[in-house]
Write a structure and sequence with these properties.
The chain has about 400 residues and is mainly beta. The strands form six sheets. Strands 1-2-26-25-24 form a five-stranded antiparallel beta sheet, with no helix packed on it. Strands 11, 12, 13, 14 and 15 form a five-stranded antiparallel beta sheet that branches. A hairpin with a 5-residue loop joins strand 7 and strand 8. The radius of gyration is 19 Å and the shape is globular. This is Exo-alpha-sialidase.
């Protein structure tokens, strides 16, 4: 059944932090929101010590009123601010924002902009701030249209040991006559050696279907990347030992994936924290045609094919997006013995519609660590709100 029999939870509030009911080791709140739909949060500790969150908000993903939202938890404050809207393109859906505090003190805001539900039309835009996000410069195009499809990103920029900037992306390939569904997506990294003025692109081999590349600097001369799987089987992993220029082919880990976003962070003690949905296609009872099968298409000559297509692996949409799980690895991501659910539920996601309050997914997590050792986590709650949670890794049973 699409509709839940119990009353929907109250997702409103003024952003004030409070202990979780029955769990004094966990602090949480819903970040104030101005929009019907709120999705795809990214958290960042700013250069002045504030914690910032960006996400996209509007009526529904893929609709042109989707824009970037920005809220701040000022250092020492107990309340998230009412969000500011930082983009407003009437022709494109502006999605997947991230913040990058550059080494020179400039704060970058980077996001995607696509036509309707066609991720193969996506370009990447940016704005910059010199005062920790209190004011912003003009909107610029960072990566424009490409001949083979769209450029998408979700994960933060990594500053490498030689000073280069690495931005994980994936390429949404265009297939003539077919609407984008994700079957041909592959990962790459953009690398800049001149503080973002120019970028080179380096593809990840054999990465078709592996996207949302979450790159961590292991501080031993190597990089590790974790991936979402379009096939909804497992989180995948690959490695680089030459500052991201070349990568091993992604291989499945022991962690499941439901074709929804993940995020990982290397902690100060060398452990890795990851937040993800602990579910896969094995848990699905229904399947969607595509991510955008409930909005009008914006490209007239591209039509979806029936699924699956014989002889070709097909992207799996509709796996429940629950539970939302925090896991800790103490050995570089090989094993994940410490896990605890942040949320549980049925994770119903056969529609993106937030106006009718049918969707019940917990998804698109973001996690970062502040200098005091706390883990800050945010994620989509029912595609209506962004929930913020603060714990430390001992909350999972791990030793800090």
């Amino acid at each position: 059944m699409a509709r839940t029999a119990s009353p929907p939870p109250d997702l409103s509030g003024d952003g004030t932090l409070a202990p979780a009911p029955g769990d004094a080791a966990r602090t949480e709140t819903f970040i104030p929101a101005l929009c019907v739909q709120n999705h795809a949060a990214n958290l960042t500790v700013l250069g002045n010590g504030d914690l910032a969150c960006v996400w996209f908000g509007g009526t529904q993903e893929g609709v042109p009123d989707i824009s970037v939202q920005f809220s701040r938890l000022a250092q020492g404050s107990g309340r998230w601010s009412v969000p500011d809207t930082l983009s407003d393109d009437p022709a494109r859906s502006e999605q997947n924002p991230l913040l990058f505090p550059a080494p020179d003190g400039t704060l970058w805001l980077i996001w995607t902009a696509q036509i309707s539900g066609n991720q193969d039309t996506a370009i990447v835009r940016c704005r910059r701030s010199g005062d920790h996000g209190h004011s912003w410069g003009p909107i610029e195009t960072l990566f424009g249209p490409r001949p083979d499809g769209g450029t998408f990103m979700r994960q933060p920029v990594v500053v490498l040991e030689n000073g280069d900037w690495l931005l994980p992306i994936w390429v949404c390939l265009t297939t003539p006559g077919r609407k984008w569904v994700g079957d041909e997506d592959y990962s790459a990294v953009k690398i800049s050696s001149d503080q973002g003025r120019t970028w080179s692109e380096h593809a990840v081999p054999e990465s078709k279907g592996c996207v949302h590349m979450s790159v961590l600097d292991m501080k031993d001369g190597s990089l590790v990347a974790f991936y979402r799987s379009r096939w909804a089987d497992n989180i995948h992993v690959s490695h680089s030992t030459d500052l991201g220029r070349t990568w091993s082919a992604p291989e499945p880990t022991s962690l499941p994936n439901n074709n929804s976003s993940i995020q990982a962070v290397r902690l100060a003690n060398g452990h890795i924290a990851m937040v993800f949905n602990e579910s896969s296609a094995a848990d699905a009872t229904e399947r969607r045609l595509s991510l955008y099968d409930d909005i009008e298409d914006g490209v007239e000559d591209a039509t979806p094919e029936p699924m699956p297509v014989e002889g070709r692996r097909s992207t799996f949409w509709g796996v429940p997006r629950a539970p939302m799980t925090l896991a800790i690895s103490e050995d570089g991501g090989r094993n994940w013995p410490h896990r605890r659910n942040l949320e549980t539920g049925d994770g119903y996601c056969m529609t993106n519609n937030s106006r009718e309050k049918i969707n019940r997914e917990f998804s698109y997590p973001t996690v970062t660590q502040s200098p005091d050792g706390a883990l800050h986590i945010a994620y989509t709650y029912y595609r209506q709100a962004i929930k913020y949670v603060r714990v430390d890794e001992r909350w999972t049973g791990a030793s800090a």
